[in-house]
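Hi R.,

Here are the chain sequences for the assembly we discussed:
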Amino acid sequence: MTTGGPGERADEMLRDLRRAGLKLTPQRIAIVRLFAGDPSHPTAQDLFERLRPAFPSMSFATVYNTLDTLARAGMAGIVRLPGKRGDAARFDPNTAAHHHAVCDGCGAVLDIAAGTLSPTPGAVKKLGRAAPGFAVHSVERIYRGLCAGCARGR
Amino acid sequence: MTTGGPGERADEMLRDLRRAGLKLTPQRIAIVRLFAGDPSHPTAQDLFERLRPAFPSMSFATVYNTLDTLARAGMAGIVRLPGKRGDAARFDPNTAAHHHAVCDGCGAVLDIAAGTLSPTPGAVKKLGRAAPGFAVHSVERIYRGLCAGCARGR
DNA sequence: CTTGCACCTTGGAATGATTATCACTAGCTT
DNA sequence: AAGCTAGTGATAATCATTCCAAGGTGCAAG
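And here is the predicted structure of the full complex:
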């Protein structure tokens, strides 16, 4: 079993990166180490700013490229939420099947475990009626509401 | 009951606009007439281009402003879907509770009727475990797959 | 250990969507 | 009809994201 130690997820991700035939550059290693265990669904900007102190020469494009590469390789997810302004993509190192809960107060995004992302028989049936011939592949859910902290403050 | 005639939805929306204390300008009337009965989830660009022939003087910003105004007044919805590039917001005149099915092939967006957008007791329970204290308000679902046409062509 | 090259990284410019600004115009109330 | 105020148009500004060209570098093969 896993030891649960910090950085373990990162090492696993780096191993997967290499296994996928991708090069382990210092930049990628830094990004992965920072990103792998981060449950806050950071934006590329977030990560870039946290990396800048240690890697002043890193390019913003590299952060995007790396996150995109991770996503393409199935090691990360991209979460986009409808929001009025400056709606940046959020990246998610959690590759297990899960949905998201979004706090309308502070904008926090929480992972909600799901056994599967496959549609339920009932949903398939309903879809068949509403959109005949549509072949469902997966379902994505977004729960809207207020997180514990924001619910208290209102 | 409704007569189901074309433009009826538009008239209703215009009535609601006035009721909301908003001015009925020629531009708004044109946008609403075009938008109200359109189930294709058009982008602001789509509408702008379709309006241009008849209203060459209309500004792109006005289309955005009007759609935003409609959305704020609860007469329209905004649908944003995760997509790599040039991901424009889509507007939805359907104010009834519903979810969306997105075709990964052609990008079409279909409405899927839903009795309610409130979370099921089961979902609430699961949420309570995964995110203690989170007060759910609504659930949004996106079904991914292939529409009838795209499923056939592959 | 050296080499070669395909893949990476940079920095900045380009693209696209959306919002802000501001002077002007036109609904709507009195 | 007159004025207050919100709406409009044109454009600039902003923000996220991608593209590009040029130089670097991980790493597999020798």
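Residues 22-23, 25, 27-28, 57-62, 65, 84-87 of chain A lie near DNA strand C (CB under 10 Å from a C1'). Chain A touches chain B at residues 78-83, 87, 89, 101, 103-104, 110-113, 119, 123, 126-127, 130-149, 151 (CB under 8 Å).

Let me know if anything looks off.

Best,
T.
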